[in-house]
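stuck on this fold:
=====
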Amino acid sequence: MPADNEFLEQLQARLAADPTANWTAEETSVSRLSKEEFRARLGYVPGPDELSLEERVQRSEEHRDVVRAAAAEAPPEWNWTNMNGIARSFVNPIRDQGSCGSCVAFGVTATIEAAARIAENIAYTDPNGNVLPELSPAQLFYCGGSYGCRNGWYPSAAFQYAERVGIVPESCFPYTPGDQPCNLCNDWQNELTVISGYSWTSDPSMMKAWLTTAPLTTCFTIYEDFRHYSGGVYKHRWGGQEGGHCVCVVGYNDYEQAWLCKNQWNTGWGQVPRFENEQYQPGLERGYFKIGYGECGIDATMWKVDGFSRIYTQY
């Protein structure tokens, strides 16, 4: 990136001149990274049973009209970070994958954490919210058979590991970006949260219905303009393709025609997790983004947790 961030200045001018652009671009924590440094914060490589990035984009574009329609099986809006209008959040805090292509581990871990909270009806913001710990993306990534930081991973393999082995708390294997040996704590077998299965769908109406039961995992194509996103409903407007990325989807809104997603680039990027019709709640972290239905392959396929064989609680 140029030292004066010329790309950002040109992007802001393009967005200002585009009446269909309803998102904002600013200096973010990833704005001035080199291409190599930025791409190190992605990491989705489609697996043998998954669509390619190009096929995901095409699939989303093909069913854009379907996803834009209100789903008969689901309400017109949903947000797991703001349940019942009182900011009761079932989503753990924003994290930072750092300079490692571990996005799949973070997106899948966030989905499993939220599904466990919903199954136990223990929100992160409840007085007893710390009974359910943050789970370890390090274990999922470094022990789960990934290809390493430079090569990334894919969701179906991550969910299979979470079903076959399970995931320990973050305290049992803290995450550090950069390839590491699988180094679990001594009592790790007794601290596992294990899913009983997972499912995927390419039906946008089903995605919305599933989201009313728990957050989902999805992957999409990242373009250069996305690194500067600071709020609004993102739609790709300018810049080349940077790679594939996976995140956790925590809500949707048919009025804004957008998905709400939790990213893992820390809180110096993105926006707070709310839609325009929701009352602002103090203390909300940046790190989320809204993305338009049918954009960048975001809704080509999504994955969900079917249930749990075991949910580890502490204290």
